[in-house]
């Protein structure tokens, strides 16, 4: 475990999105749709993280790791709730979110829940533990990207021109992802019996998580683009997944409003290294510096804006 010693605390932030436009990144419907789709994925997704981690807690024998896992749960619970509130913002802009959100809820609550499909056999104790560790591994793979994307957000200046409230919402969230980027990896390692098993299973899980994550992100953005009345949204809604990936690469390179697909590929390539650890994927101090000036985080701490 290479975690920098740091106590994870939840910040009870609130965001008033009443004046935030649908295209909160100016002149960029692609990035706005793609990122807005995340509001529909994370409420169920991050609540699922919390449920899995609460089940994993009794197996954690290291007191420091236990404290990290508890801090992680507290932060992810607020992330989930915050994105859930942001769904009202999408409704205010006349987006119907029901169909896509229902699919995501099925994915996390049923498919990745306690008894996927009708496999009640998983209720048997030993298999139940394997299923739990597997899901902890899936979370570790997802958290590799939230940490890398968090550092990208801290480094990028492109959202300075975006709607300040929505930009702060994503920056606050992603700064906390950088802050807790080592927890999921350390927990998965802690629950794997051998280093070889840990290495092989984290590669196997990444091979599933990476394409699935790209697909789900693209579907989220597409579910909103299909409802857009402007020419670009209608163009976007007709495109294949491959064409969207090419568009993400183009827009990422041109504007830096979204990371490029190459950035995500490079992040997954680093994961393959046997000595990989997410401690090297981000800068905790840079995340804390942002959280010290984030308007929402300051308000949550009872501090005036800087
Ligand atoms: Fe989160
Ligand atoms: Fe996270």
Summarize the structure.
With 306 residues, this protein is mostly helical. The protein has helices spanning 29-36, 38-56, 63-92, 98-111, 125-155, 164-179, 183-191, 195-225, 231-237, 241-255, 261-272, 284-293, 295-300. The model has no long low-confidence stretch (mean pLDDT 95).
Walkthrough of the structure:
With 306 residues, the protein is an all-alpha fold. It has one domain (29-300). It contains 13 helices and no strands. It has helices spanning 29-36, 38-56, 63-92, 98-111, 125-155, 164-179, 183-191, 195-225, 231-237, 241-255, 261-272, 284-293, 295-300. Helix 3 crosses helix 7, helix 5 (125-155) packs across helix 6 and helix 8 (195-225) crosses helix 9. The longest helix is centred in the middle third of the chain and has 31 residues, at 125-155. The two termini are 36 Å apart. The mean pLDDT is 95. The site of one fe (ii) ion has 5 residues, from helix 3 and helix 6.
Key attributes of the depicted protein:
306 residues, mainly alpha, 13 helices, 0% strand, binds fe (ii) ion
Helices and strands in order, then pairings?
Blueprint: H1 29-36, H2 38-56, H3 63-92, H4 98-111, H5 125-155, H6 164-179, H7 183-191, H8 195-225, H9 231-237, H10 241-255, H11 261-272, H12 284-293, H13 295-300
Helix pairs in contact: 1-8, 2-3, 2-4, 2-5, 3-7, 5-6, 5-7, 5-8, 5-11, 6-12, 8-9
The chain binds fe (ii) ion (2 copies).
The portion of residues forming beta strands comes to: under 5%
What does the overall shape look like? globular
- Which molecules other than protein and nucleic acid are bound? fe (ii) ion
Low-confidence stretches: none
- Ends apart, CA distance between termini: 36 Å
Please give the radius of gyration in angstroms. Answer: 19 Å
Number of helices: 13
Total DSSP E strands? 0
Helical content class = 55-70%
């Amino acid at each position: 475990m290479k975690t920098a010693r740091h106590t994870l605390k939840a910040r009870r932030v609130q965001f008033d999105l009443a004046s935030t436009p649908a295209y909160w990144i100016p002149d960029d419907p692609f990035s706005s749709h793609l990122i807005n789709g995340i509001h529909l994925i994370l409420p169920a997704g991050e609540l699922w993280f919390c449920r899995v981690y609460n089940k994993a807690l009794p197996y954690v024998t290291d007191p420091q790791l236990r404290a990290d896992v508890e801090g992680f749960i507290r932060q992810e619970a607020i992330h989930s709730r915050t994105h859930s509130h942001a769904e009202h913002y999408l409704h205010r802009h006349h987006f119907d979110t029901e169909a896509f959100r229902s699919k995501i809820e099925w994915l996390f609550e049923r498919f990745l829940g306690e008894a996927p499909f009708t496999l009640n056999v998983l209720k048997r104790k030993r298999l139940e533990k394997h299923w739990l560790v597997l899901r902890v591994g899936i979370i570790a793979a997802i958290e590799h990207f939230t940490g890398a994307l968090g550092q990208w957000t801290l480094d990028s200046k492109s959202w300075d021109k975006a709607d300040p409230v929505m930009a702060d919402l994503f920056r606050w969230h992603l700064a906390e992802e950088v802050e807790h980027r080592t927890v999921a990896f350390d927990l998965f390692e802690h629950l794997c019996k051998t280093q070889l098993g840990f290495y092989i299973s984290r590669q196997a899980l990444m091979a599933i998580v990476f394409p699935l994550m790209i697909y789900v992100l693209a579907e989220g953005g597409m579910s909103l683009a299909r409802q857009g009345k402007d020419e670009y949204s209608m163009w976007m809604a007709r495109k294949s997944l491959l064409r969207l990936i090419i568009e993400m690469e183009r827009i990422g390179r041109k504007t830096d409003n979204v990371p490029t697909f190459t950035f995500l590929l490079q992040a997954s390539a680093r994961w393959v290294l046997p000595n990989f650890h997410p401690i090297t994927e981000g800068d905790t101090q840079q995340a804390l510096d942002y959280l010290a000036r984030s308007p929402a985080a300051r308000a949550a701490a009872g501090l005036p804006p800087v």
